[in-house]
Amino acid sequence: MVAACLTGWAHSQFGKLDNVDAEVLLADVAQAALDDAGLSPEQIDSIHVGTFNGGFLYQDFPSSLVFNRIPGLRFKPATRYENACATGSAAVHGGLQSIEAGKATHVLVIGFEKMTELATPQVGEVLLKCSYAREEAGIPGGFAGVFGTIAQAYFERYGDQSDALARIAAKNHRNGSVNPYAHMRRDFGYDFCRNVSEKNPFVAGPLKRTDCSMVSDGAAALVISKADVARTMPKSVGFRAAVQVNDYLPLSRRDPLAFEGGQHAWRQALGVAGVSLKDLSLVETHDCFTIAELIEYEAMGLAKPGQGASVLAEGLTEKNGLLPVNPSGGLKAKGHPVGATGVSMHVMAAMQLTGTAGEMQIPGAKLAGVFNMGGAAVANYVSILEAR
């Protein structure tokens, strides 16, 4: 049990936000999260900002940017976090650790990214910095190429999984079609996702366009408060567990199809929380590519290695299944602004647990799992959240 709770949250629209400055984007979600928690800036003890950047924007050193528009935060300690695509969860953990160390009563966590300032090929070059450059920088297609290689290896070991990947894509786009924050609010259907076409070509290996998350801009923010104080606040969502596990960076030093770091993170988190997968009402998982979600079914323990497709065939992860996965639409439909993603996943789970998820709502949601990873299962974060 973690002695901290989510007490406020906010989420921007995800997408191509041409006319929104990054400074405005992060300040708007920060203020909205403070308002949601019913707190003034002066009541915040520290600020934890997650952004990957890596060249997306010229402006770096973002920790104090929020002061420009929320001057009440001035003179508070503020720190920037980066852990590849798990950057948002790194910021969440930084906030949790401040509270657990007795340094803070309320913290503000912000995750943001502006990716669309660069052309898509340049975005791919920036993201490939999250691989082990000495061995993997030459993989064509950027990070899509990395996961295309993983997908091809999975197909070779376990058989063609094109049907399973299409089911994941179709599920997540169907779910995302009712998410008001999603980059892509369109239900493409299984057939479109399954078949190669002019609008859905192969991108890398067996991965088609519908198998890849989009280049997005966006931001999300959380207020995290000490658990005893949270009981006096208008709403709170508790942390039953918050676990981080890192693995080797080079793919050559591990089985790239096992996501062993994710396995360890899930096992530890469920153990700390004292629950099993069957106790969870939903999971928000890191589907940067559909092959990632397929392997994550196996890493979390829903299926044995190579049998993730059976989860889809049985409908277990559908919105009306035994364990809905990515009712928000996931990164696939919601979008993947790198630094915002981990924070966004916690916001989506908190909305479910407070019954405020609108058309995305899973009836009676009580426990939610969040899995956010950086790289190909290198930095792995699992949170188990509960309604209070």
UniProtKB/TrEMBL annotation:
Domain spans labelled Thiolase N-terminal: 13-183
Signal peptide: none
Highest taxon of the lineage: Bacteria
Domain called Thiolase C-terminal: residue spans: 250-386
PANTHER family in the record: ACETYL-COA C-ACETYLTRANSFERASE, NON-SPECIFIC LIPID-TRANSFER PROTEIN-LIKE 2
Name used for this protein in its record: Acetyl-CoA acetyltransferase
Species this chain originates from: Pandoraea vervacti
